[in-house]
Amino acid sequence: MDYRTVITRVLDGWKDGVDAHRPDEVANYFTEDALFQGAHPGYSVGRKGVEEYYEEQPVGLTVVYEIREIRPLAQGVLSAYVDPVFTRPDGTELPFHLTVILLQQAGGDWLISHYHVSRIVE
Predict the structure, then answer these.
(1) Model pTM greater than 0.85?
(2) For the chain, which has fewer Cβ within 10 Å, the N-terminal or C-terminal residue?
(3) Is pLDDT at 122 greater than 90 in this prediction?
(4) How far apart are CA 100 and CA 108, in angstroms?
(5) Which residues, in sequence order, are CB contacts of 95 under 8 Å at separation 6+?
(6) How far is the C-alpha of 116 from the C-alpha of 101, rounded, in Å?
């Protein structure tokens, strides 16, 4: 199994949903009980929280990312350390560090079960 392909497939889908401002599409890349920590102080559990978070983001927000590290944690469990840069509609770039944990589902699909970003403040 090519772990980079797995991570890229999931993150590309997440990115496409963010770029198109489709919070429901973004949420579909997460498990039903995903632990989600975005840039806000609080966190959520489940797809509804992910969808609500991305619904609050401005239309026109986009993201690019670079995968830095990938680690298999167990059979059907991957961890990745990623550097995403979100760009607001006014052109302001917001760099972050992101850790995701993906779980392989019964049908073979991979979904994000843990998502945690920290903003890079220079």
Answers:
(1) yes
(2) C
(3) no
(4) 18
(5) 83, 84, 85, 119, 120
(6) 9
